Amino acid sequence: MGTFIQLVVDGLSTGSIYAALALAIVLVNQATGLINFAQGGMAVLSAYVAWWFTGIGVPLILAILLAVLFSFVMGAFLERYVIRRFERGDPDTAVVVTIGLLTLITGICGWLWSYNNQQMPSLFPLDTVQVLGASISVRSIGTTVVIIAIMLLLQGLFVGTKFGLALRAVAVNPQSASFSGLPVGRLLMAGWGLAAGLGAVAGALVAPQLTLTPGMMDNALVYALAAVILGGLSSPFGVVVAAWLIGVLENLAAVYVPFIGYDLKVVVPFLLIFVVLLVRPQGLFGRKAVVRV
């Protein structure tokens, strides 16, 4: 029983990392209608900025807040001067642009700080608590709590605020939104900036658990995209639940399913995607799109 609880809690903690990136992807999609494949690279760059600030003596909390601010400005800048040229064009072109941004940002991180492993200080203490025979780290609990808080804030943003509704209106039909008096350009910049800031939080959470490297978020980005497909692009709550489901089932399958083990546990999210897309193509919590012709 203790092993099972340990695997579940660790899976929730790992899934929370995937969820943070997935929420950033959903935020960009809700604001612009695009999938941002550069989100992982932007999160890594933000983590390096926070790490650099700690290296010159800035307290960790303040360093993370400065990194979030940096990320907001970076996201708004990229939307205004790079992405906007492709947002309403061919979706395939926009995908290639975000992949190119991922490669560029990763290269910049390696150029500025090298490809050597760096140790990022942890936001939470490394202590553990005993629950039903399982040793649960405070960092796992703290990471999960942070993601729950962000999920609730985003859900409230999209559903209960004029700003969130305006972001969704711009993503669905920017021309109609503009005719309604909404500042489309500023809303697009704000959406990308908020998503980049959320990615900075993801980078600050994952960097202490791994070692800080330019490719640190590559695997997490794959899992985050899987969570987005499973949970549905229109549901912040759904992608968080999907990310937790992936993290927990992956851990359980690695231990309790002999032919999968730790070497093949990466197939778990893809099996989930296959099953879910057969039953609900819009995702577990997504809304089915209705197109009028």
What does this structure look like?
The chain has one domain. It contains eleven helices and two strands, in the order ααααββααααααα. It has helices spanning 2-32, 39-55, 60-81, 91-113, 138-160, 162-172, 174-179, 184-206, 218-231, 236-256, 267-279, and strands at 128-131, 134-137. A two-stranded antiparallel ribbon has the order 1-2. β1 and β2 form a beta hairpin. The longest helix is centred in the first third of the chain and has 31 residues, at 2-32. The radius of gyration is 19 Å and the shape is globular.
The gist of it:
It is found in: Cell membrane. Strand 1 and strand 2 (134-137) form a beta hairpin.
Strand % is: under 5%
Number of strands: 2
Estimate nothing, just give the exact number of structural domains: 1
Radius of gyration: 19 Å
- State the major sheet: 2 strands, antiparallel
The first-to-last residue Cα distance is: 55 Å
Total number of helices = 11
| Oligomeric state, counting identical vs distinct chains | single chain
Query: How much is the average pLDDT?
Result: 82
Assign a percent range to the helix content. 55-70%
- Spatial strand order of the main sheet: 1-2
Low-confidence stretches: none
Order of helices and strands: HHHHEEHHHHHHH
Content-based structural category: mainly alpha
Gross geometry: globular
